[in-house]
UniProtKB/TrEMBL annotation:
Belongs to the HAD-like hydrolase superfamily. CbbY/CbbZ/Gph/YieH family. GO terms for molecular function: phosphoglycolate phosphatase activity. It catalyses: 2-phosphoglycolate + H2O = glycolate + phosphate. This is phosphoglycolate phosphatase. GO terms for cellular component: cytosol. It comes from Geoalkalibacter subterraneus. GO terms for biological process: DNA repair. Pathway: Organic acid metabolism; glycolate biosynthesis; glycolate from 2-phosphoglycolate: step 1/1. It comes from the Bacteria. Coiled coil: none annotated. Its EC number is 3.1.3.18. It holds the Pfam family Hydrolase.
Length: 214
């Protein structure tokens, strides 16, 4: 349980499920992956769905945690570039996301005290589009997307590169995400403060710990 963020200088947010929650968009992304698996195997969408589900189940058994969709596609021999090209072609966040004044206000007050960053498995174009729709694209000092990491979270080497690029001791960071195993396990292992969230309102916990609100 976090009690003190007095040394925090850099807040690193996950994107999907952290700064917004949209099951419909998640379903679009899942369906794009199903289509890509089906095309790569030359099978029906139904068969592609089965193949994807089995691969995800197998990885869950091996690593004792559910893998990301990107990691599952890699396991099936699909390159990261192929997967994200499909997402850019098939996923339409503008159908579901809109300007979020609450999120804008929350992040605007945070960036008065800390530098804000995004670390996501999304591609840069899709991340820009989502953040722009939410109205918070200009809030972040840098976006660490799959193009920078070259490997999906949680990847130790990519995580190390993000830390080194931002700079600062462990206590100067706060990592915020909605998936403990994917977003927060690596920073927690290094003693970096983390915060698990389930909805936008949970971000107010940061403000309380920073003393922005009582």
């Amino acid at each position: 349980m976090l009690t003190d963020l007095s040394e925090t200088r850099s807040i690193v947010f996950d994107l999907d499920g952290t700064l917004y929650v949209c099951p419909q968009l998640g379903k679009q992304i899942e369906e794009a992956a199903v289509e890509l698996v089906a095309e790569s195997r030359g099978v029906s969408r139904e068969r592609g769905r089965e193949i994807l589900a089995r691969a995800r189940s197998r990885l869950t058994e091996i690593f004792e945690e559910q893998p990301t969709l990107t990691r599952t596609c890699i396991e099936l021999g699909i390159e990261i570039r192929e997967f994200h090209q499909m997402l850019q072609y098939r996923v339409r966040p503008e159908q579901y996301l809109d300007h979020d004044p609450v999120l804008v206000a929350l992040l605007d007050s945070l960036r008065e005290q800390c530098d804000l960053y995004i670390y996501t498995n999304n591609s840069l174009p899709l991340s820009h589009k989502i953040l722009s729709l939410l109205g918070v694209e200009e809030m972040f000092a840098r976006l660490y997307t799959i193009e920078f990491a070259q490997a999906p979270k949680p990847d130790p080497e990519a995580f190390r590169r993000v830390l080194e690029d931002i700079g600062g001791p462990p206590e100067s960071f706060l990592f915020v995400g909605d998936r403990a195993a994917i977003d927060l396990k690596l920073p927690a292992h290094l003693g970096i403060p983390t915060l698990l969230v389930g909805e936008t309102a949970d971000l107010l916990q940061i403000h309380k710990l920073l003393g922005i609100i009582p």
